[in-house]
Amino acid sequence: MNMKLTTLFAAAFAVVGFCKTASAVTYPLPTDGSRLIGQNQVITVPEGNTQPLEYFAAEYQMGLSNMLEANPGVDTFLPKGGTVLNIPQQLILPDTVHEGIIINSAEMRLYYYPKGTNTVIVLPIGIGQLGKDTPINWTTKVERKKAGPTWTPTAKMHAE
């Protein structure tokens, strides 16, 4: 029973964390012709922490995948108090014209260059799987309930 609550709690925090990551970070464009923007930060997780890594990603407007890459070995669900987290806010701008919207799917980032400014707005993005469109007008129902259910990936899932 405790495992179910923990899983539900983690999923709820993940949803909240992913919703918050829609925040953007605005960087000034480099004037020296460089493509390097921003500065990495280091923070310490507060003692008695009850927040998942997604919380810290959202707090600093970072994607979860970027936080995981910058902090290998950190507990995703509950980083321990005193843990040092690297916040990877130093970026290399895409090698392209700096105007309009540029999506770098490999980095999972959207770059927006507003007209008439010397800034770039960067947002983390999520990418689905090709051919796996989000259903429209999706209706679900509970067909059966079972106490302590198990789940086994299908052969199709293993193949993917």
UniProtKB/TrEMBL annotation:
GO terms for cellular component: extracellular region. GO terms for molecular function: peptidoglycan L,D-transpeptidase activity; transferase activity. Keywords: Signal. It comes from the Bacteria. InterPro entries: LD-transpeptidase, LD_TPept_cat_dom. Residues 1-24 form the signal peptide. GO terms for biological process: peptidoglycan-protein cross-linking. This is L,D-transpeptidase. It comes from Salmonella typhimurium. The lineage of its organism: Bacteria, Pseudomonadati, Pseudomonadota, Gammaproteobacteria, Enterobacterales.
